[in-house]
Amino acid sequence: MTVRVGTSSWTDPTLLACGRFYPASARTAEDRLRFYASRFPLVEVDSSYYRLPAARTAHLWTQRTPPDFVFHLKAFRLFTGHLTPAAALPADIAGELPPEARIVDHATLPGELRDELWSRFLQGLEPLRQSGQLAAVHFQYAPRVRNNAAGRALVRACARRMEDQVHAVEFRHRGWLDPAGRAGTLALLRDLGAAHTVVDSPDKHVNSVPAVWTATRPDLAVVRLHGRNEEAWNRRGIAASSGRFVYEYTPGELERIAELVRRLTQAAANVHVLFNTNFEDQGMRNAQAFDGTMRQPRRARGSGTAR
Question: In 95-155, at which residue ranges do the beta strands (DSSP E only) sit?
Answer without folding.
Answer: 103-104, 134-140
